[in-house]
Write a structure and sequence with these properties.
Number of strands: 4
Order of helices and strands: HEEEHEH
Shape: rod-shaped
Radius of gyration: 29 Å
Largest sheet: 4 strands, mixed
Low-confidence stretches: none
Number of helices: 3
Mean pLDDT: 92
Length: 108
């Protein structure tokens, strides 16, 4: 550690500066904790393992099976279980050609 000044006025000045600096650090820590907490609250849930893409229209008929998180499934998709995905593919529903859910499920 460096040498401290011997006289009282400079020591008091140094103490004041350190207190102000510590207050700034404390504020920065509080702000960082708030940002971290907000990011954790705002984090989207993980995508489902499998999704069923639905057609446009009132009834929304199933048109394709996707691996969860596939962007080509679009906004008209609903999560399904592994068994439902396998059943849909076995019944002839098209697998997505990009994410290849049939390969992921082990259906060749």
């Amino acid at each position: 550690m460096s040498e401290l000044p011997p006289d009282l006025p400079r020591l008091l000045t140094l103490r004041t500066w350190l207190q102000l600096t510590l207050a700034e650090v404390d504020e920065a820590i509080t702000a960082a904790r708030q940002r971290d907490a907000q990011q954790q609250r705002a984090a989207p849930p993980p995508p489902p393992d499998w999704v069923l893409q639905l057609s446009i229209g009132g009834e929304g008929q199933p048109i394709a099976v996707h691996v969860g998180g596939c962007r080509t499934a679009g906004g008209r998709a609903r999560p399904i279980s592994r068994d439902q995905a396998m059943r849909a593919l076995a019944e002839g529903l098209e697998p997505c050609v990009l994410c290849r859910p049939d390969t992921e499920l082990g259906i060749l």
